[in-house]
Amino acid sequence: MQLGFIGLGHLGKAIAGRLLDCGHNLTVWNRTHSKSEGMLVEIASSPVSVTQNAEVVFLCMFDSNAVNSVLTQENGILSGEIAGKIIIDLSTNHFKEVSNFHELCKNAGATYLEAPVLGSVVPASQGSLTVLVSGDTTGYEKVKPLLENIGKHLFYFNEPALATKMKLINNLALGSFMATIAEALSLGEEIGIAKKEILEILSVGGGNSLVLNAKKMKLLEEDFSTHFSCALIYKDLHCLQDLAYEQKKTLFTGSVIKELYARTFEEGMDQEDFSAIYKLFKKK
């Protein structure tokens, strides 16, 4: 299938690579053109040109401002003829903004599906992501086989913004697990136990989780090359606070974890992998 793909950050490039491995042809656009180097894809000159030969266009952007830009800017997706096309937005958006994206695309005759994913670069390259989807049922059924190329688990919600809200809730657990594992590791080292042994014990004890399994080698080797950045989880936890505010719910651990990730900006670590939070505890 001829697909469009906009947004070749760490995650986007991994997902695009997976789609290529599954035999699809891609027309891509990215603000930084060099990120498409080495990929066997057609390079588009603008977001709208991505849609010309593609029935389905994926977006994988940093935040809602970036999504809004590729949709509405001059030469953005909505400036072209997109009636009948399906936009699959893999970005983690603000839950209020995503409702607007549904409406904008509907008014242009296109189907918008919000489809934030759980997982980062490695599962993306293996087609093992979890994909949360909200939007038109007919559109979802049409692209479900395509989503199964990138996702091992699919969860569908008809109500707009529900998938995005669930993604934010998931990242409450994700960030909290990561911070707790990092603090436990640092404290264990402080009392004189070797890092490798601490991680082995945590992995069969209270720390056993997908998070620890995914980040064990990064913590062991202190290789914090980015799969999912501190800046991204900070952004998601900020959106989560807005969700809690709207629901008039207190957010205890989420607020603390968000402020810990805020420190990564002060320490110049915001573009490193979110497991780099370990360094905040280690330096004390």
TrEMBL record:
Keywords: NAD, Oxidoreductase
Residues of the 6-phosphogluconate dehydrogenase NADP-binding domain: 2-156
InterPro entries: 6-PGluconate_DH-like_C_sf, 6PGD_dom2, 6PGDH_NADP-bd, HIBADH-like_NADP-bd, HIBADH-related, HIBADH-related_NP60_sf, NAD(P)-bd_dom_sf
Active site: 167
Gene Ontology molecular function, alphabetical: NAD binding; NADP binding; oxidoreductase activity
Keyword NAD: yes
Superkingdom of origin organism: Bacteria
Domain 3-hydroxyisobutyrate dehydrogenase-like NAD-binding: 164-280
Gene3D superfamilies the record matches: N-(1-d-carboxylethyl)-l-norvaline Dehydrogenase, domain 2, NAD(P)-binding Rossmann-like Domain
Oxidoreductase recorded as keyword: yes
A Pfam family: NAD_binding_11
PANTHER family linked to this entry: CYTOKINE-LIKE NUCLEAR FACTOR N-PAC, OXIDOREDUCTASE GLYR1-RELATED
Protein name: Beta-hydroxyacid dehydrogenase, 3-hydroxyisobutyrate dehydrogenase
Organism per entry: Desulfocapsa sulfexigens (strain DSM 10523 / SB164P1)
